[in-house]
Amino acid sequence: MQLFFIKLKVCSCSDNSHKISSEGAYAACWIRASDPTSAFAKAIFLVERDEWEINTVEIPPTVVTREMFIDRDIGLQNYDSATLRGFSVYYVAWSSEVDQETELTLNTLEKLDKAKYYKDRGALLKKGYCLHPDSSSCCNQIIKAHSIQKNQSLSSISIDNHVYLLSKKSFVDHDSTVCYQKEGINKASTFKGFCKKHDNELFEAIDNNVLVPTEEQVFLYAYRSICRELFEKNKAASLLNANLSSFTKGCAEKRLINNLIEGTNYGLDNLIKIKDTYDLTLSQRTFSDMKFVVFKCNQKPNMAFSGLIYPDFDFLGNCLQDLSDTNKSLSLITVCSAPMEGGWGYLLAWHQENSAVCDTFVASLAELINSGESVEDALFRFIISACENHAFSPCWWDKLNSTHKETIIQRVNEMVDPLSVVSNSYLQTGLEGIVEWSFNEVLTNLEPNT
Ligand SMILES: [Zn+2]
Q1: pLDDT per residue as tens digits for the range 408-422
Q2: How far are the Cα atoms of 117, 246, 422 from residue 114, in angstroms, in the given order?
Q3: How far apart are the CA of 171 and the centre of ligand 1, in A?
Q4: Measured in angstroms, how far is the CA atom of residue 150 from the centroid of ligand 1?
Q5: Collapsing DSSP states into helix, strand and coil, what is residue 340?
């Protein structure tokens, strides 16, 4: 990631909580970002959060290096701070109340009632319910269900029952960066989305057997990914709403949360419709509704994952569906790792209903491979970019060189940052030569040439 410098001319908002009133100011922003558009969006957010209005852009996003600030104390301090924290903003303001140059710390009033937020959050995180279509009042024993197959998938990559997972930080902490942390596999990737009885009954064919794959198994892996996503999206929507209702006044953070809520609700509506389609397949046991491709690897796995994506761009950088078009039903594809006889499988699965986008998505992967690109790199890139629910073997991660670690962490952060703009080629390039996977076999129920 690069460091951008942006200079804005600003004035304080009416209704500001600045200690000293000013007639005007310059905001100098040092922002770590992958591209100028994301850097600019972040700078605007930070400046508005500090209760300024933007008048003019004096210097648009410009890539800077540390050497450029070497003789300038303040510039260097801010540059270093941005390298560490991701951003740094310095204001130079003028005011008739101050007659000599003074350095002040800008403090704005806290607009979030943190006590209320954390109380609501705690209650929401404890909540569980059963997502089985036949759920009833009998579903009283809600368990922590594993979204990544535990018996062989997670346990086979763990060391002393621990794996590396992405740390979750809440938006409230003012730091949206994520990193990998070691966690016990009993906690890893669990969600309270099924009762004990239904979880045991429903997923028997994948929890106690390796992936063959049968059509039922393919369905179950996909279904579990969808149920987890539905559970997590519901939780995220509730948390954002709790966050929104904890603001004591309007501000830039509140506007951003509002946008995030809109996006989350839209995703949720789609997901509910898609789960209905899957529920129908489950009740009729018409598992041949599923389309799938399995890439089989005869090595020991170094990671495990389970997730889904509404493909926006394909592996060649072509736009597939506009995720912001709220009038359209979105197509989604699920992706999971699964234990197989003598190795493991990388499973892509999608429902035949509304499948055109996913068909094209998978066809673009075939095209990428035919053009001589590495399938292993492409599939690894896909997981890191699109599936937060993944775990690394400590054995693999600890031995990975620091450049590769940084490349992975950088990509993950670009993808989870709500203010970052995603490049249309994010599945086409990046993260090459990091994994040592080697796929030996491809299993699919797709007709040839589709
Ligand atoms: Zn149940």
Answers
A1: 998 998 888 777 777
A2: 5, 7, 31
A3: 32
A4: 20
A5: strand
As a dihedral over the C-alpha atoms of residue 88, residue 32, residue 318, residue 437, rounded to 10 degrees, the angle is: -140
User: Distance from the CA of 135 to the center of ligand 1, in angstroms?
Assistant: 4
Q: What is the pLDDT at residue 174?
A: 52
Find the 136 Cα to ligand 1 centroid distance in Å. Answer: 7
Please identify which residue in the block is written with the tokens 């993950």. Answer: 412
∠ CA 401-31-59, rounded to 5°: 140
Q: How does DSSP assign 350-413, residue by residue?
A: EESTT-HHHHHHHHHHHHHHHTT--HHHHHHHHHHHH---EEE-HHHHHHS-HHHHHHHHHHHH
CA-to-CA dists, residue 104 to 7, 30, 90, 107, 398, angstroms:
19, 19, 10, 9, 43
For residue 309, how far is its CA from the centre of ligand 1 (angstroms)?
A: 26
pLDDT of residue 168: 66
Residue 272 and residue 230 in contact, taking contact as beta carbons nearer than 8 Å? yes
Q: Residue 193 C-alpha to ligand 1 middle, in angstroms? A: 9
Q: Amino acid identity, residue 14? A: S
Please give the pLDDT value at position 449.
59
Answer yes or no: are the C-beta atoms of 435 and 381 closer than 8 Å.
no
* Ligand 1: centre distance to CA 131 (Å): 7
Residues of the chain with pLDDT under 70: 151, 168-176, 449-450
